[in-house]
Amino acid sequence: MIDAKTLARELMEAYAQKRILEAPPSSRDPGFDLATAYTVEGELVRLRAASGHSTTGLKVGFANKAIWRVLKLETLLWAHLYDDTVRYAESNTASLALGPMCAPKIEPEIVFKMKAPLAPGADATVALEAVEWLALGFEIVDCVFAGWTFQPADFVAAYGLHAALIVGAPRRIEPALIPGLVEQLPRFKLRLLKDGQLVAEGSGKNSLRSPALCLAELASALPRQPAAAPLAAGELVSTGTLTDAHPLTPGETWTAEADGLELPALTLHTTER
Q1: Which residues are CB-contacts of 79 (< 8 A; sequence separation ≥ 6)?
Q2: What is the number of domains present in the chain?
Q3: Short-list 93, 118, 72, CA closest to 239
Q4: pLDDT tens digits, residue range 34-88?
Q5: Residue 178's domain spans which residues?
Q6: CATH number, domain at 117?
Q7: What is the average pLDDT score of the chain?
Q8: What CA–CA distance (Å, rounded) separates 116 from 118?
Q9: I want to staple 73 with a disulfide (CB 3.0 to 4.6 A). Which of 68, 91, 103, 224 is the partner?
């Protein structure tokens, strides 16, 4: 049986040393489940706090109900963001060094900043009423499991694969904007470009039918884990990728453009160091 503290240190060291693990925890222990994985995730939070790094919010994974049926999930998955993994893009342009990462990929997402707690059972309107602002973001995910092969519990235990979050210019959510955003968030289109060439298209509906509904589902998912704190004011929430994830290499320029949602384009330049 896997010990949560031991596994947390193993995963932390694997990421720090860029060491690929041939066997994810679920293949080593058939009893390794989501409850144990969230215990590992909590231990990573403790270890990172001991090294001086605080959490700044949550990232979402598996925000697709079709995947839930295949993987026998009851809700989406989540993991923490940290003060040293989140950065804000000045003038909506940022650069990111990939040298410390094993096999990074890019995911365009909608990011929310909470201004109030959010209880379970919310609809899209109630969820947005608890939000201070929204922005385009790039979540950079990284995997220490060979061949990017893992099960949901492995995903949770390994930081939710979170490596970095690039946050674009925020748009403040005033009460008068909420009815329009409820309509726009499921429908807007997202274009992902690499070096000026279109590589993927997505839509707000890819994030659990709407990023606002994804946020509401996260508020309902957290109480399923006894040690999890509810969503609180000041936290960031990255609501799941709007396109397939794409591999990153140094020397590339990636841009996300939203059509049907008033957010400026976000650009990321990748470097080696």
Answers
A1: 41, 58, 59, 61, 155, 156, 159, 160, 161, 162
A2: 1
A3: 118
A4: 999 999 999 999 999 999 999 999 999 999 999 999 999 999 999 999 999 999 9
A5: 4-271
A6: 3.90.850.10
A7: 97
A8: 6
A9: 68
